[in-house]
Amino acid sequence: MIKLGEEAIENIAIGAALLGTGGGGDPHLGKLMALQAVRKYGPVTMLDPLEIDDDMLVVPSAMMGAPSVLVEKIPNGNEFKRCFNAISRYLGKTVGATMPIEAGGINSMIPLAVAAQMGLPIIDADGMGRAFPELQMVTYHLDGITASPMVVTDEKGNMEVLETISNKWAEDLARVATITMGGSVIVNIYPMTGKQVKTSAISNILSYSEKIGAIIKKSMQTGCNPIDELLDLTKGYLLFKGKINDVLRETRAGFNFGKAVMQGVEEYKGAAFELEFQNENLIGRKDGAVMASVPDLICCVDLESSIPITTEALKYGRRVAVLGLPCDRKWRTPKGIETVGPRYFRYDIDYVPIEDRMKGVVTK
Amino acid sequence: MIKLGEEAIENIAIGAALLGTGGGGDPHLGKLMALQAVRKYGPVTMLDPLEIDDDMLVVPSAMMGAPSVLVEKIPNGNEFKRCFNAISRYLGKTVGATMPIEAGGINSMIPLAVAAQMGLPIIDADGMGRAFPELQMVTYHLDGITASPMVVTDEKGNMEVLETISNKWAEDLARVATITMGGSVIVNIYPMTGKQVKTSAISNILSYSEKIGAIIKKSMQTGCNPIDELLDLTKGYLLFKGKINDVLRETRAGFNFGKAVMQGVEEYKGAAFELEFQNENLIGRKDGAVMASVPDLICCVDLESSIPITTEALKYGRRVAVLGLPCDRKWRTPKGIETVGPRYFRYDIDYVPIEDRMKGVVTK
Questions:
Q1: Is B161 part of the contact surface with chain A (CB cutoff 8 Å)?
Q2: Is residue B298 pLDDT above 60, yes or no?
Q3: Interface predicted TM-score (ipTM) over 0.85
């Protein structure tokens, strides 16, 4: 059991924004929400999955929708209580803890704000080990845990409890509700037992985010470049350094789609890099050759400050370093690749683990 | 208290199809569902609103969506129990009775099937006194009763409990769920107390439907034309007799939109009639002059058999009589006209009661 105060939350916000691979929502807004809650209600208790009872009801909380919308459509703070009351009443059981479903600027922070406000502990685990755009893209789904009963609510006070025959149906029905409610909502999803958390979640994602955040924050104070230290910790690779030349964006079907084009700087001078995203970064190509793809993590950081950059913040002239990090091994199973591999996102390429791509085994 | 058996249900099906003004779903399918339920579970107890306790929980049941879809996407029968269990669990109260929200082929019959299957009484009342395409178009809405908590379920087993800040939000969220679930669903909506039924519902719609149906059925046996008797009972008017020349249809946003064009026969020879609909008939024009508009009832019946014709069954060559019936007085209040008058449906005309139009007060 660890108590998370303001400093820990600042670090988690930075680290989770990196693991959010460009998505997961605005880190600044998420951090403000979590900090405000912790200042008002006190530090949050974080439990390791191994510390919880097998029959505890754990209810992950999250924001769903297009992150670009959330920036201007801020939760009013009543959503959390409304959601938890509804799921508790619907299941006839008291909620024992919350948990993130993904790592990212908003979705690592919302469960912290929820935990503080509701007086609940947060579990040091998530269902992605990164961020993904659709809600069946969690390890829970791979293990047959159902997304529903799921609660969707908006800042106006509308609410839906969904009970669906599959997680894809939960995604489809929650997505149209999200769009109708204005593009971003607060959800409770994948309610599960403590035992399911232990076997199915990706453990220690919050403490991992905190370590990443601490490295970046230290570098801001010392002025030392943290990239090498980050790559050591994450077993990642530097894919590119460049200046953004062009960004194409489209908000469609409740998602932010787009592509950023960069021209190389420093040792990458003369090369070009293309990054495509759907809320999160999906695929990176250097001079046309695939360097990394989902489910591996493609993360942009500011070239000077090493602060993680979300896809909304990609803009002309910005200088960035692109990092490639291996995903959790659960995503490298056949069902994992079927659920979140490049073909799911309509790219006509096979998934190749980033370590293999970096060995030169595959260059295209 | 009256027991409704097979004969009563046959008559209600015919009469409600007339009051359904072209919408409310296929009368044949609805009748089969209700008859099957009554044969299996026995006659249904029908209660007059005055007979029920003020604190009884009454939960109307209905089909929502495009009637043309329902014809090929038949409920599997489990929807009713699932819906009622969900609303009962959500409200923490036992359901005392069900009720139709509208008169129409499907939506008068579904509550009868529900009542038989669930062993519940049905209240002899509805919220429209006819059929309308959107779910805030009920007298309950005029009286401030909320549509939610509302349950939406499909034949596959997906379900949503909606709790919304307004009835328009319930309509919008349930509508996108309906479309996503395939175009037609079963709903529980406007749960209310016995006292609210007494003050807000339109009483005796089922017994009124039964009387209309009995007139039409008798005429089928005797061969006598029932139109005059129908107009006497309903205080209605014969608007036109014609042969359908053209039908335009479009299924859009979960509704059946369209227009039928007729050329006059018998005493209407030489004249033309245009009928526009959105699930239900909305406006009728003879030689360009408005003869009747929502919320008054515009009903097509087969010219030979006087069987009511739904908008799906309008087709080239069919010979029809068009009747105009005055709506319930609740629709003639300012809020009633705002909710279901011609301007709500984007027609640039004022509502004029059909009696006034027939007096020649307004000819265009």
A1: yes
A2: yes
A3: no
